[in-house]
From TrEMBL:
It comes from Fictibacillus iocasae. Residues 148-213 form the HTH luxR-type domain. CDD domains: LuxR_C_like, REC_NarL-like. Transmembrane segments: none annotated. Gene3D superfamilies: 3.40.50.2300. This is Response regulator.
Length: 216
């Protein structure tokens, strides 16, 4: 029986490349594609893959929020994060959201196949950089983080993208253009960011991010 895989990435060429390679594997078949987390959730109502290869930074709904919702609604579906980010700010939220695997997009094709098969068998698979971040969190005791850092950890990947843009002094229109989202969506993210960081305005958010060196 083949392992059914769904590809979730906002870059068409990435999905196309993955589909082409995975189609050469006799034990794996791609059954669906989505350009963001929302599309993936909609498709999962009818398509039930064994594995989802999930990007992190996507419009509409990012990979961490999508992972959280997929695991809540379809707990048997296993998720492998496939991203370019290996820092703690992305690794830990993804794993806490329920991802069974975390790999970087520079992974060798044969290693990706091994990862898919292992996760399908119930074995967690982490890129060495992701493992380093996890061990660092455990070694440092996690709970010793300052309150500001803890609040920052509650931000989704997309909210962090917006906060980073705010820190650079960009307005909603510029942020919307840079992240390929609507100004209305930017405003929604800004409101969520301020609420999660317990702040009153975007200037305070920029100052806080700069003080903590969140984007250096």
């Amino acid at each position: 029986m083949k392992i059914n895989v769904m590809l979730v990435d906002d870059h068409h060429m990435v999905r196309k490349g993955l589909r082409f390679f995975l189609s050469t594997q006799s034990e794996i078949q791609v059954v669906a594609e989505a350009g963001n987390g929302k599309e993936a959730l909609d498709l999962l109502e009818t398509v039930k893959p064994d594995i989802v290869l999930m990007d992190l930074t996507m419009p509409v709904m990012d990979g961490i929020e999508a992972t959280r919702q997929v695991k809540a609604r379809f707990p048997d579906i296993k998720i492998i994060i496939l991203t370019s980010f290996s820092d703690q700010d992305h690794v830990l939220p993804a794993l806490k959201a329920g991802a069974e695997g975390y790999q970087l997009k520079d992974i060798e094709p044969d290693e990706l196949v091994k990862c898919i098969k292992a996760v399908h068998q119930g074995i967690k698979q982490l890129h060495p950089d992701a493992t380093t971040q996890l061990l660092s969190e455990l070694t440092n005791g996690g709970g010793k983080e300052n309150p500001e850092q803890k609040r920052f950890q509650t931000l989704t990947a997309r909210e962090r993208d917006v906060l980073c843009e705010i820190t650079r002094g960009k307005g909603n229109k510029e942020i919307a253009a840079d992240l390929y989202i609507t100004e209305k969506t930017v405003k929604t993210h800004v409101s969520s960011i301020l609420a999660k960081l317990d702040l009153h305005d975007r200037t305070q958010a920029a100052i806080l991010a700069t003080k903590n060196k969140w984007f250096e």
